[in-house]
Amino acid sequence: MPLFQRQIIAALLLCCLAFAARGETLRLVTDAWAPYVYAEDGQVTGLDYDVSREVLRRLGIDLELQFLPWKRCLLALEQGHADGILGIFHLPEREASMLFVEEPLSEVELVLFYARNRPYPYRRLEDLRDLVIGISPGYWYNDEAFRTSTLFSREEAPTHEANLGKLIRHRVDLVVNDRRAGRYLSAQLGLLDRVDYNRKALGHDRMYLALRHDPKLAQLAEDFAAELRRFKREPAYAELQQHYANPRDTKP
Fold first, then answer.
1. CA nearest 107: which of 90, 125, 92?
2. What's residue 2's pLDDT?
3. Which residues form the signal peptide (predicted)?
4. DSSP assigned state of 128
5. Could you give the CA distance from residue 231 to residue 55 in angstroms, rounded to a whole number?
């Protein structure tokens, strides 16, 4: 290989490795979604946050996180105001604007929540006919039949909290959310005795870390995936899973 080609390759490798070598800060954005990532007593916490912070610590990188509404998270990454998004579904159409770390952070199970005093059993799509279902703007629901069905109406709410508030006031019939996230939010709001969910899932998906398309972040994506795989084999990872397994009812 000619000398100038070797020099170019070496320069590119140094560029990719410089991010980790300098101990820089990775600037991420996300929308609060307990128990995956949220604020408690003024401190950021959550399963995906704790896992990501530990993996980045092992790579010598600090994590800086900002909470934004979901659509603003996507805009911040698009405009270069953030290095990445913490906790996002991997969609083919998103690959043009972001680089997904190959190893997923967590698994999610999408279910339908209902008010205990007005349950709507769900076993098949036909059970949802003429109902009003609360959804969150900008969020992805991976079951295509549910996503495109005209059997029911969809009503957006600005936050997940607002969706549950509408549910217990019977302004919507059902609310779609991740099972763990919906349970945690119900606990935070003191609603575990007023809200439950249908055990049949709408579908399953995975949450990822997505980064900007940038040469110095491309190597980080590979390093993060490799270190995350190692971490998942350790007892510390299993302990984190157990820690966030069940919500605590915070009702006074």
1. 90
2. 54
3. 1-20
4. G
5. 7
CA distance linking residue 182 with residue 149, whole number of Å: 23
Instruction: Specify the length of the chain in residues.
Output: 252
Q: Does domain 3-106+206-243 have CATH number 3.40.190.290?
A: no
Cis before residue 35, ω within 30 degrees of 0?
yes
Separation in Å, CA 97 to CA 79, 91, 122, 138: 10, 11, 36, 16
3-state secondary structure of 33: strand
**Does the fold of domain 108-204 match that of domain 3-106+206-243?**
yes
Q: Which of 129, 148, 134 is nearest to 176 (CA)?
A: 134
Q: Which long-range contacts (CB under 8 A, 24 or more apart) does 120-125 make?
A: 120/173, 120/174, 120/198, 121/198, 122/174, 122/198, 122/200, 123/200, 125/149, 125/151
Domain ranges of the chain: 3-106+206-243, 108-204
Q: In the structure encoding, which two tokens stand for residue 246, read together?
A: 């069940």
Model confidence band, residue 11 (pLDDT cutoffs 50, 70, 90):
very low
Categorize the per-residue pLDDT at 188 as very low, low, confident or very high, splitting at 50, 70 and 90.
confident
Tens of pLDDT along 36-59?
999 988 899 999 999 999 999 999
CATH class entry, domain 108-204: alpha beta
Backbone angles phi, psi at 172, to 5 degrees: -130, 160
- Given a contact cutoff of 8 angstroms between Cβ atoms, the answer to whether 28 and 85 are in contact is yes
What is the per-residue pLDDT for 140? Answer: 65
State residue 252's pLDDT score. 39
Dihedral angle at the C-alpha atoms of 163, 164, 166, 172, nearest 10 degrees?
80
The stretches of the chain forming alpha helices (DSSP H) are: 3-21, 47-58, 70-78, 144-148, 160-168, 179-188, 215-232, 235-243
